[in-house]
Amino acid sequence: MKIAVPKEIKNHEYRVALTPTGARELAGRGHQVSVQASAGEGAGFTDADYQAAGAQIEADVDTLWCNAELILKVKEPQPDEVARLTPQHTLFTYLHLAAEEPLTRGLMKSGATCIAYETITDARGGLPLLAPMSTVAGRMAVQAGAHSLEKAQGGAGVLLPGVPGVAPGKVTVIGGGVVGENAARMALGLGAEVTILDKSLARLEVLDDRYQGRIKTVYSTADALETATRESDMIIGAVLVPGAAAPKLITRRMLADMKPGSVLVDVAIDQGGCFETSKPTTHAEPTYIVDGIVHYCVANMPGAVARTSTQGLTNATLPFVLALADKGWQQALRDDPHFLPGLNVHAGQVTYQAVADAFGLESSDPASVVGG
Ligand SMILES: NC(=O)C1=CN([C@@H]2O[C@H](COP(=O)(O)OP(=O)(O)OC[C@H]3O[C@@H](n4cnc5c(N)ncnc54)[C@H](O)[C@@H]3O)[C@@H](O)[C@H]2O)C=CC1
Ligand SMILES: CC(=O)C(=O)O
Ligand SMILES: [Mg+2]
């Protein structure tokens, strides 16, 4: 199969979808791998590394896309990339479509087959291609929030661990999944007072057992959210309803109850965000202030630690990439019921129910699309 790896073009996105190690696996199975010149540079991989692994380097982006059957990316396609997609292409990347109607319609119009990392499942009910980047983003969320609490960033001037004689800061994490647990662990490690809210009692049980009271667990209700807004120095939004737009859990009205200079870190921004006042930001300008509250809403947080993130992401994606390359997308999805929900768009049709619901579109059943 002809496989292309473009250089990512989203603001400050330095990850790459395939490492030289992955290129070697693909080339060794007889696939033709083309990597855009300097695509791996931000993650520490040179063109020569890819060539040594059996890939060819393509300097011309038009040629790269025109010759490809399978396109491997990290971030959702940007408008210039959507314009390059045709029915010949299978695109494998993060998509987060429920947060972005123009992108959804653009992919439908392209006729391409679009498979999302974030809706692939596993036998334990997890999201194995989201989890490594959720781990990174959860761990970064506390770093980003702690920096935002500094006065120079518009924050309240609170040091999360406090000092002897001064109480630590309070961090509330909404959503105790992969992002939430990793954020809570970092906040705990820094010495903050940490609370996790979740709608899933089963998940709260796991967290309670794991942290033995060092992290408080609270069932998420309107009351609990109001208490969190009144008391917290930092709130981290980490909820997910897979494939769907995030619920808005903190409204603009509730910001008035927060302490001035408190910080909201909306990690769920890639699914539209879980705070009413959230809008996507970039690493170039990560924060903004609404009603005295600092908002950090970067939609590609792991891009900032591209070396670690690229390795973590590609460890998880490579087996799926190999299946797509070896079998073609239809057979690969037919053979694996956990890969099948990755299919979001094919030949103009949305094939993921929550995305179709977000925009009032008809959805096609992915199982009938792949046949069998
Ligand atoms: N901004 C960024 O750079 C990145 C963002 N993310 C995003 O972070 C979000 C969280 O991802 P994961 O932790 O992997 O998901 P997850 O599925 O592991 O955890 C989500 C948790 O939210 C809980 N939840 C759902 N609705 C809730 C509600 N109304 N109230 C309280 N809890 C609720 C669920 O019970 C679950 O425990 C996703 O939107 C993901 O795409 C992930 C990586 C990078
Ligand atoms: C999950 C995601 O959107 C990211 O890693 O950028
Ligand atoms: Mg994202």
UniProtKB/TrEMBL annotation:
<dbReference type="Pfam" id="PF01262">
    <property type="entry name" value="AlaDh_PNT_C"/>
</dbReference>
<dbReference type="GO" id="GO:0000166">
    <property type="term" value="F:nucleotide binding"/>
</dbReference>
<dbReference type="InterPro" id="IPR007698">
    <property type="entry name" value="AlaDH/PNT_NAD(H)-bd"/>
</dbReference>
<dbReference type="InterPro" id="IPR036291">
    <property type="entry name" value="NAD(P)-bd_dom_sf"/>
</dbReference>
<feature type="binding site">
    <location>
        <position position="198"/>
    </location>
    <ligand>
        <name>NAD(+)</name>
    </ligand>
</feature>
<feature type="binding site">
    <location>
        <begin position="267"/>
        <end position="270"/>
    </location>
    <ligand>
        <name>NAD(+)</name>
    </ligand>
</feature>
<feature type="binding site">
    <location>
        <position position="220"/>
    </location>
    <ligand>
        <name>NAD(+)</name>
    </ligand>
</feature>
<protein>
    <recommendedName>
        <fullName>Alanine dehydrogenase</fullName>
        <ecNumber>1.4.1.1</ecNumber>
    </recommendedName>
</protein>
<feature type="domain" description="Alanine dehydrogenase/pyridine nucleotide transhydrogenase N-terminal">
    <location>
        <begin position="4"/>
        <end position="137"/>
    </location>
</feature>
<dbReference type="GO" id="GO:0005886">
    <property type="term" value="C:plasma membrane"/>
</dbReference>
<keyword id="KW-0547">Nucleotide-binding</keyword>
<dbReference type="InterPro" id="IPR008143">
    <property type="entry name" value="Ala_DH/PNT_CS2"/>
</dbReference>
<feature type="binding site">
    <location>
        <begin position="298"/>
        <end position="301"/>
    </location>
    <ligand>
        <name>NAD(+)</name>
    </ligand>
</feature>
<feature type="binding site">
    <location>
        <position position="203"/>
    </location>
    <ligand>
        <name>NAD(+)</name>
    </ligand>
</feature>
<feature type="domain" description="Alanine dehydrogenase/pyridine nucleotide transhydrogenase NAD(H)-binding">
    <location>
        <begin position="149"/>
        <end position="297"/>
    </location>
</feature>
<feature type="active site" description="Proton donor/acceptor">
    <location>
        <position position="270"/>
    </location>
</feature>
<feature type="binding site">
    <location>
        <position position="134"/>
    </location>
    <ligand>
        <name>NAD(+)</name>
    </ligand>
</feature>
<dbReference type="InterPro" id="IPR007886">
    <property type="entry name" value="AlaDH/PNT_N"/>
</dbReference>
<feature type="binding site">
    <location>
        <position position="15"/>
    </location>
    <ligand>
        <name>substrate</name>
    </ligand>
</feature>
<dbReference type="GO" id="GO:0042853">
    <property type="term" value="P:L-alanine catabolic process"/>
</dbReference>
<dbReference type="GO" id="GO:0000286">
    <property type="term" value="F:alanine dehydrogenase activity"/>
</dbReference>
<comment type="similarity">
    <text>Belongs to the AlaDH/PNT family.</text>
</comment>
<keyword id="KW-0520">NAD</keyword>
<keyword id="KW-0560">Oxidoreductase</keyword>
<feature type="binding site">
    <location>
        <begin position="239"/>
        <end position="240"/>
    </location>
    <ligand>
        <name>NAD(+)</name>
    </ligand>
</feature>
<feature type="active site" description="Proton donor/acceptor">
    <location>
        <position position="96"/>
    </location>
</feature>
<dbReference type="Pfam" id="PF05222">
    <property type="entry name" value="AlaDh_PNT_N"/>
</dbReference>
<feature type="binding site">
    <location>
        <position position="75"/>
    </location>
    <ligand>
        <name>substrate</name>
    </ligand>
</feature>
<dbReference type="InterPro" id="IPR008141">
    <property type="entry name" value="Ala_DH"/>
</dbReference>
